[in-house]
Amino acid sequence: MRLEKCWFCSSTVYPGHGIQFVRNDAKIFRFCRSKCHKNFKMKRNPRKVKWTKAYRRVHGKDMTQDSTFEFERKRNRPERYDRNLAVDVLKAIPKIDKIRVSREERHHKNRMKGNKAKVQKEAEKEYEQSIHMVKAPSSLQQEKIKVKVSQQQSEENPLMEE
Amino acid sequence: MAASFASRCSRAGRSLFGGLSNSSPGLFTTTHEMTCSNYLFQVTQQRNFIQMRTVLKVVDNSGAKKVMCIHALKGKKGARLGDMIKASVKEAHPNGKVKKGSTVFAVVVRAAMPKGRCDGSEVKFDDNAVVLVDKQGQPIGTRVFGPVPHELRQKKHVKILTLAGHIA
């Protein structure tokens, strides 16, 4: 059993899920759900659609090069079954997962490093530029709001009546 | 005189209003339909069964180029991927095994309509294509072009699978 990747969003396609489209040159496009299939039919480029893995990779949002990805590589040679090896693999899976998550967190932290100072700077600038729009509540109370009430005359069309 | 004038005016007014009330929803519906049809055309194209008068491409070297389905041998609504059909040859190469106008049996090896797989996922192809066979299910040609689905093995068309280059 092989868990394939979705052509559009690069998520895992589990058995029994999604649809696959076979082009006439025998290229297979697998889709995890109808959302991805529809986007493919609309001829959208996954590198330009923000929620896909491809976009995040291209724009440096996600970690791209890491040794933990090596475990999930596609291998075309089947492994001979060995019980001890299988046990080891099952033990290693949560460990590797933990390492990967921590590395991703670090990557995210690195990426967001200069963000706080930038937000602060922008806020200060906005404060300086638009302080005149804010008024003290005491000054608002002094102003009295006057509303002019006018009577509306209903228009009558004598021609409409029989 | 005055009464007649008033009545005429009222009629005119009514007709004017009537025209307005008729036209405005009409306009709305037309635009709505147009957008709907555009949307459907872009996103979902209706794919149907292979039924009588469906024209299919022949993807072997039997000599026929295009056949028209005249009967689906199985299924109430029509044939799907892997089913056998009876077809009439509409276009053929001048010196092939199959002549134009002859009636042949064929197996649908590619269908644009999605077909459920044994695990619950679906598969669909670019076009509708067949391979010509005799009544026993043996292929007439000696080559098969393009991808074919592995479901043909369940349908006992192993010969077509061995001839095919790509199995999807």
TrEMBL record, chain A:
Residues 104-162 are annotated as: Disordered. The keyword ATP-binding does not apply. It is found in: Nucleus. Keywords: Nucleus, Ribosome biogenesis. GO terms for biological process: ribosomal large subunit biogenesis. One of its GO terms (molecular function) is structural constituent of ribosome. It comes from the Eukaryota. Pfam families: Ribosomal_L24e (PF01246). Residues 119-129 have a biased composition (Basic and acidic residues). Residues 6-44 form the TRASH domain. Residues 108-118 have a biased composition (Basic residues). GO terms for cellular component: nucleolus. InterPro entries: L24e/L24_sf, Ribosomal_eL24, Ribosomal_eL24-rel_N, Ribosomal_eL24_CS, TRASH_dom. Belongs to the eukaryotic ribosomal protein eL24 family. This is TRASH domain-containing protein. It comes from Vicia faba (Broad bean).
TrEMBL record, chain B:
The keyword Ribonucleoprotein applies. The keyword Ribonucleoprotein applies. GO terms for cellular component: mitochondrial large ribosomal subunit. Pfam families: Ribosomal_L14. It comes from the Eukaryota. CDD domains: Ribosomal_uL14. One of its GO terms (biological process) is translation. NCBIfam families: rplN_bact (TIGR01067). This is 50S ribosomal protein L14. It comes from Vicia faba (Broad bean). The lineage of its organism: Eukaryota, Viridiplantae, Streptophyta, Embryophyta, Tracheophyta.
